[in-house]
Amino acid sequence: MRYRPLGRTGLTVSEIGFGCASYWGLLRFDEGEAVRLVHRALDLGITLFDTAPGYSRGEAEPRLGRALQGRRTDGLVIATKAGTFHAGGGRTGRDFSPAAITVSVEASLKRLGLERLSLVQLHGPAAAELNDDLFDALERLRARGLVSAFGANSFDPEVIAAIIAAPTLDVVMLDYNVLRPERAPLIAQAATQGKGVLAGMPLAMGHVDGQIRKFRGLRDLWYAARALKNHRQELALAERFACLRRLDGMTAAQASLAYVLEHPGVSAAVTGTTRLAHLEANAAASGMMLPPDVRAGIEAAQNG
To answer: Of 34, 120, 218, 239, which has the most beta carbons under 10 Å away?
Structure first.
């Protein structure tokens, strides 16, 4: 596993991060299996674990906390979020007020069993919500020693630009993958400002890999239903990259991760999984180089 600095935060992260969300955190997914995945990630040298209070109907964050019990957490970057929460019935609530953010961070520390959070990211804020009152609240949390670094995640280019411009925010998390090459200039801009950049959705929800066609259990039906509901456009676009499913020496997922990590401004690619083989293959992508013909094929597909 290779490691990169997270901008100017003073933190170092593994190139591959483990996303603790979605089906991994749901109670219907066996707790023992979920914990084994976290422990295997640690064995593979993964040091970045990303979660949020609202993920998996509110179950992901406490599950990660249980998985880390008895394990050394110094040297790990445990990242969570604030501003959104599970509001019951599968609904997500939003509150970016300074008081709510403070309460959220304090609650996350308890659920994760930590005294200090490496990174807290504002979860999908609007540009107008990034104001001085909120930033003052973040700095107070930092002054109390509860959080090392702050960031925000968004898939909206205007909001991403506002995050990059905010001095209080050290990290930006955005959607960067073979389907989103237009994010590259924003990543370069963030890196120039000293921001750490986390690539969310580096596998484009598994669409490039054709995961929606692979039914091996209830979890696959769950992911397929979510893709058909929320990502039909991405599913169609991903078919341009079907050539990546026939590579020698690397999987489509590994090629996708190598593409993301080729950008010098990216600190880590964060991806989740519920299967040990996928986790190990993703971790093996660290340090892989895209052959010139594969890169050319990706660029050709991006150009339509």
So the answer is: 120
